[in-house]
Every structure is written in C-alpha cells, then in structure tokens.
Write a structure and sequence with these properties.
Elements lengths: L4 H12 L20 H9 L1 E5 L3 H5 L20 H10 L4 E7 L28 H12 L2 E6 L12 H17 L6 E3 L15 H11 L4 E4 L5 E3 L14 E2 L11 H6 L6 E2 L2 E6 L15 H11 L5 E5 L10 H18 L8 E4 L23 E2 L7 E19 L8 E10 L2 E8 L6 E20 L4 E2 L1 E5 L5
Parallel strand pairs: 1-2, 1-10, 2-3, 3-4, 4-5, 5-6, 6-9, 9-10
Antiparallel strand pairs: 7-8, 11-13, 12-17, 13-16, 13-18, 14-15, 14-16
Bound molecules: beta-L-fucopyranose.
C-alpha cells in the first residue's frame, strides 16, 4: 500500500522532532572573540609532543653555532615510528619537530641551502627526518607540526632582510607543500644577543601558511592562532584568558606576564601553549634525566588544567630514538593521568541550578554531567551570579575538580568557588578566576555527597559545559 506523501512528510517531522518541538528559547549569543574551528580542534587535543632533534643532539649544545659539519648528524638507527607510537600510546595527539633550529641545519633535504641532511653521510645523503616523521605520524593517526627557526646562524644571507626573508619563505614553502597536512607551524621568537638586527616578514610567512595549510594553527609569541605562555616551565597563569590584544605583543620581545595570564579585554582569541622539556635541555644530552612523575603531573595541572595546551618536549637521542628513561616516564605519566581521570565521580550525579535559560531542558544543569562539550548549562542573559549543585547520590571521596566552559561561545567566568557539604554546613574547598576549556583544581581530599559551583563574576552570563570530580590516590 502506498502512503500519501503528505502523511510521510508529517511523520518524518515527528520522528525528527522538528518543527513541532523546536525550542523557543534563543541560544546564547557568543561572547566575542571566539575561537576559529582550527583553534578549537587544537585546544581540545590538549597534549602535543615537541621533538628537538638536529646537529645539537650530536654536539651536546643547546644552541648550535651554524658551522657544524653535516656529517655530525648521524643517528645510528633513526626510528620515527617509535616516537609516534610512544606519543600515541601515552596520550599525545600532535608531534612537532624542529625541522631547522637556530644552527640552520635542515633535517630535510632543503633545496635552499647546502647545510642539510643531503650533505650528510647519514642515509647516503638521501635521508629526510621530516618525511619519516610525517609518515610515522600518519600511520599512528597523529597530527604533524613543524618548527622552522627564523633565527639562522648558518645562512649567509641572514641580516639582509630581503634576501633572508626570501630564503626563509622558500624553506617554509617546502615544508608546507611536501609533507602532507600540517596541524601547527611554530615560529620561535628566540634570537641570540649577537644576532644581526633584522625584521622577519612574519606577515608574509603567516599568509603563506594560511594559503598552503589552512588547517594549521600558527604559533608565535603573539599568535595569530596560539600564543607563547611566557615561560618554559610549562606553567600557565592561575588566571589564564584565551584572549589578548595582539598589538601589545612583539615577537621575541614579549611581556611574559601579559602572555601568562592573557587579557580579559583582549580583542583577539589567541590561547596559550605551554612548552616545556621533559629534561633540563631541549636537545638530548647524555647526562640528563627526565623530570620526576610528580613534577610532570604538576606541569599537567598547571598547563592543561589551566586552560592551556601542553607541548612537552621529548628529545630523540643519538640513535634517533626516544631515550628509554623518558619513555618509561611517559608511560608512568599516562598511567597516573588515567588513574585520576578515567573515573568521574560526578557522572552519575544529579545537577540542579539556581537559574536555567528560559527554563528550557536544552540548557538545564544536567548537561554539565553528560561528557559532551557541545552541550552546556546556560542561564538567562541577565544573570551574572549563579550556583550549580550536584548531588552525587551517595558520599564520594575526591580531590580534583574539573570545570569546563563551552569556549566555542567565548570565555566568560572570571571568579568562582567550589563548596562541598559537610556535617556542619557548606565549606569552600577551592576558588579561582578563569576557567576556559579546562580548569583542574587540586583540593584537600574530601568526602561529600553534595558539591556546588558558585559563579561570582562573569564577562557575560555563564555557560558551563562540564563539571567532573576525580580522585588522585596517594596524594
Ligand atoms: C627557544 C629556543 O631558543 C630553544 O632552543 C627551544 O627551541 C625553545 C622551544 O624555544 O626559544
């Protein structure tokens, strides 16, 4: 029997829920500026691995002089597949390699210089570390990023603005076109005091990246997509806005405190990235050890847990493999993070809020417990203070509180407190300023059945995507 077309149409509306059940409550307006799609993807990946590898690995230096013999670059059993496998298994989503550090030695066969692997006896001059990593990353489903130092202590044209910028753009174009999609391009602002004064044509570099790799975020002190966090300890500010005024930042000469905390009034969305090495140096050195698990966990809480992406450097050794001690520490770190975060004690709770946008189910408090960053609790536009309470159903013991804003609609909260209910009433266990993509508060271990998030100050009515409670055992 044939069903009349009109009936079919009506039935399909009912099944799809539209237009009859359309929510009448207007969605929250974004608080500008907001992240671009590539910035949002980048932020949600949370952890990237930095790989400093080059002639310094063999000379033991941190900053090469530029007159190293290409033959000195001689990894005995380069294994980029190992870098990528360890990175994926320990929770990293992106690999960022120093294609050229300040010494100017290109670890891909650049056509623009003789100071490259093509003049090394390694691999009979046919080696290409960038290619090996690009293939390994693809095989593990990881993103690839590249670092190309603007400061170049080898290149003779350095100091001649026109010639050097042309040279640099040539190298950049090679990296942007010959290795498949890139997720991040890293422009280091570092320059030694003795370097000849010259201006890098960042505007041209960045527009080439946009043209050839539109999916890649661009890192420099001032962004445009991702900013330096102002130190190399892996610590974001306890207050960390994803906004700054880019015009206030000069690459290579940035005000560290400004970058560390961001700027609530900033007109540009440029979230911070925390770069830090697992060891003392950026390059591998024989006599160095990885940081302890406790130090690395502290770094995690002060980077990812403060609205930052953690870019942890793990330098390949002279064989061209990650050092066994570093590898062991990375697996320990992964196990420790899994032990803390695999269980969310709030997930089975019930949430209620002091106010819900238009009284609509689409914005009710329960969305903070659904594990979905696209749904959130929202209030009406006029609300500037609000409370969200979670009843865990039974007493639970925890010492880590996770709060996440739906940053796709901007960053809003500037003051909040966490309280837990004890026999003699509510007790404040932590308070903070910004939240952003992820805020992790380490608190004294408490046992409670009810917890509340009190939002005291906002830049626009609050939105909260997630609230989680975790236990870090043995702390
Ligand atoms: C700095 C450089 O001078 C270091 O050698 C390292 O590459 C670090 C990530 O950035 O500015």
């Amino acid at each position: 029997m044939r069903t009349p077309a009109l009936l079919c149409l009506a039935a399909s509306f009912l099944v799809a829920g539209a237009p009859f059940r359309q929510d009448e409550v207007p969605p929250p307006r974004p608080l500008l500026p907001i992240p671009t799609g590539r910035q949002l993807d980048w932020q949600r990946k949370e952890m990237a691995m930095f790989l400093h590898f080059g002639v310094n690995t063999f000379s033991g230096r941190e900053w090469g002089t530029g007159d190293e013999d290409p033959n000195s670059f001689n990894p005995s059993r380069l294994d980029a597949a190992q870098w990528a496998r360890v990175a994926r298994e320990t929770g990293f989503r992106t690999l960022i390699l120093t294609a050229k550090h300040h010494d100017g030695f290109a670890i891909w066969p650049s056509r623009y210089t003789e100071h490259t692997v093509k003049n090394a006896s390694w691999g009979n001059g046919r080696g290409d570390v960038v290619r090996e990593l690009a293939e390994a990353a693809r095989a593990e489903g990881l993103d690839l990023g590249l670092y190309l130092s603007p400061w170049d202590r080898h290149e003779p044209s350095y100091g001649d603005e026109r010639a050097y910028n042309e040279f640099y753009i040539g190298q950049l174009r090679e990296l942007l076109t010959e290795y498949g999609p890139l997720a991040e391009v890293w422009f280091d602002g570092a320059k030694g005091p003795e370097a000849v004064d010259m201006d890098y044509d960042f505007a041209a570099y960045w527009s080439l990246v946009r043209q050839l790799q539109p999916g890649a975020v661009i890192f420099s002190d001032e962004g445009p997509d991702v900013r330096w966090i102002g130190n190399e300890h892996g610590f974001a500010g306890a207050t960390n806005w994803s906004t700054i005024d880019r015009s206030r930042v000069e690459v290579g000469n940035a005000e560290a405190d400004y970058l560390n905390s961001g700027d609530p009034e900033g007109s540009d969305w440029v979230p911070g990235e925390c770069d830090v090495s697992i060891r003392r140096g950026w390059f591998w050195h024989e006599d160095e050890e990885p940081k302890s698990l406790d130090v690395l966990l502290d770094i995690y809480f002060k980077s990812v847990g403060r609205n930052c992406v953690l870019l942890l450097n793990v330098p390949p050794d002279r064989e061209g493999r990650l050092d066994p001690a570093d590898v062991e520490r990375l697996y320990e770190l992964r196990a420790a993070l899994d032990a803390i975060f695999a269980t969310d004690l709030a997930a089975i709770g019930r949430a209620a809020a002091s106010s819900v946008r238009g009284g609509s189910a689409g914005y009710e408090a329960s969305h903070v417990l659904d594990g979905d960053l696209e749904t959130y609790w929202a209030t009406d536009d006029s609300v500037t203070r609000a409370t969200l309470e979670v009843d865990l159903g039974a007493r639970a013991t925890f010492n880590v509180v996770r709060i996440q804003e739906p940053i796709q609609l901007g960053q809003r909260v500037s003051a909040y407190r966490i309280e837990v209910e004890q026999d003699d009433g509510w007790e404040t266990v932590s308070s903070g300023t910004t939240i952003g993509h992820k805020k992790l508060d380490r608190i004294e271990t408490v046992t409670a059945r009810r917890i509340r998030l009190i939002i005291d100050e906002v830049r626009a009515h609050p939105l909260i995507a997630e609230l989680g409670l975790h236990l870090h055992r043995g702390r």
